Amino acid sequence: MPTNIGRMNRLRVVKEKDFGVYLDAEQLGEILLPKRYVPNGLRVGEEVDVFIYLDSEDELIATTLIPKVQVGEFAALRAIAVNQVGAFFDWGLAKDLLVPFSQQKTRVEEGQVHLLFVYLDQITNRIVATTKVDPLLNRQEPEYRTGEQVDIIVGDRTDIGYKCIVDSRYWGVLFFQDLVGRVYKGDHMKAYIKRVREDGKIDLSLQQTGYKKVVTILDQIIEHLEQNDGEMHLTDKSAPDAIFKEFKVSKATFKKALGALYKEQKINLGKDKITLKK
């Protein structure tokens, strides 16, 4: 398997030096893993997981640090510097990630968080990014089913909710009325397909739709009671934020779950606490 610049690779140690070890990077030749990143006890012939990129001298280098985003992925990162070349983003490595001015959808300013896509410049082998993500999404017709779980990255706030990148392929919208708890630009989280519109636009929810979302927390409530001597001081009168913090569901869903457990005669509903029936 070829070694990929801008991705994690599992490579074999071929030389040991005082300043680090050299790794067999297949078609890229031998690449240095500096001493500060060499795991204790690593020897010639053994393999190690490393990320490959260009250092400040434009030489290929390896690190065991895992960046916040790799080539071919989307992420929301914060700009930490801007100069005559472009904007530089913190992605967890010593050398910051560059978004050239030509790849900025709007002019980036220091301190801002932007959605971006990381790619490899095929001419220079430099890892760079673009904030012009729109052309990279919605290239195909969504084929999701209602209730299907997806991975999202929260993007910009709009008048109706938050734009989100869905499974690194589509734009979706998380409406304000479907929020439970607070979300922030750049959050990575699980969500559910609420609806795919006829025009291909995707509506998202942070909870499963219908009664299915109630069923998923029934066991969690029972487990919580069993682990707390059969008592719980969250009730149908508790604050929505307190309920979401514990069970990651809305107050309405929590109340439906309590109703279902009460009908099954598994709990007692008190004024200020819920108790498990013996």
From TrEMBL:
Conserved virulence factor B first S1 domain segment(s): 5-64
Highest taxon in the source lineage: Bacteria
Domain Conserved virulence factor B-like winged helix: 219-276
InterPro entries according to UniProt: CvfB_fam, CvfB_S1_st, CvfB_WH, NA-bd_OB-fold, WH-like_DNA-bd_sf
Similarity field: Belongs to the CvfB family.
Protein name, entry field: GntR family transcriptional regulator
Species per Swiss-Prot/TrEMBL record: Marinomonas gallaica
